[in-house]
Every structure is written in C-alpha cells, then in structure tokens.
What does this fold into?
Amino acid sequence: MFTIQEMQAMDYLLKWLLKQDRFPFVDKNLKLVINVHGTNWTGDFINYSKGDVQQFYIDDAGDVENCWLYSTGSNATAVFHKIRETYNMQMSNLPYGNPFAKINNLSLLFNTLTKLVRLAEIEKDDSPVYPYLLNAKSLDGKLELPFINLDGETIAVVSIVELKDER
It folds into this structure.
C-alpha cells in the first residue's frame, strides 16, 4: 500500500523514464493501475509536461494560474527531488549500468518502481500536488471521471498497463 504522495513520486518517475531515449518503453503510454474500493483504475497522479509537473491553482485575485514543480535545482519540490535522487543514487551504485535500459518487461518495471519509491522515504508534507487521480478511467470501461479525490487513502497499486488508443 502506498500514500498519494508516494504514488505521485512513482507516476513522476514512470513519466520521466518514458521520455528517456535509452529506456525500452520510450514514448509508450504506460499507466499505473490502482484499486480503489474494489474497482481498478488508471489515470495520472500528476500533470507532467516537458520534464516537469504543472499545478493549477486559484490566486488571490480569483484567477486560475499555474506553477511548475521541479525535481532539480534550488526550487526543487521535495517529492520529485527525492525520487530523482533515489533513482540517481541507486543507478550509480550498480556496477553493470542502469537496469532501466534493459527492462523490457512490465512486471520488472513495476517491481523496480515500487522498490525505488520505498527507498525514497516520501513524506506526506513532501508534495504540494493535489491528492487526485486525474483523468480516471475504470479498467472495465464503465466509468470515466475527471478526477478521484484520494486524500487520506492508502492506495493499492496493482499493475502497469500500456494504453494504445490514447495520448
């Protein structure tokens, strides 16, 4: 079971890896599958664009604004910084190179992602991202929701799937 903040970190790392040329799953549309109250769902835990996370909010004047959350640099957001640093540390400790360059099996990818998230020691206060599963779709195809509020939930991540019909 994972917290919403850990799921945000896992989704970030998955989305970041999918943009790395040396990764066998480059540019695939892979999604985490979670179980919420007996239903399996896919979706997005973050709005990922061009290597960073976008967060929308209402400013003091009542206007909808957005801010960018980074994993590196002096303005790095803790949740994304921790998962990237954990990834970098684990990859540098391996004498045979980056295993992600060789992982071409979704179950191995799942196992490695969950391991890295556990090692990152993500805390609840590390993430300012809303606790939502965005663009939520049930695997049985019966429900599509703009988001599911997962605040306070412990989340069972059950798989990774490749969605072929959307981007």
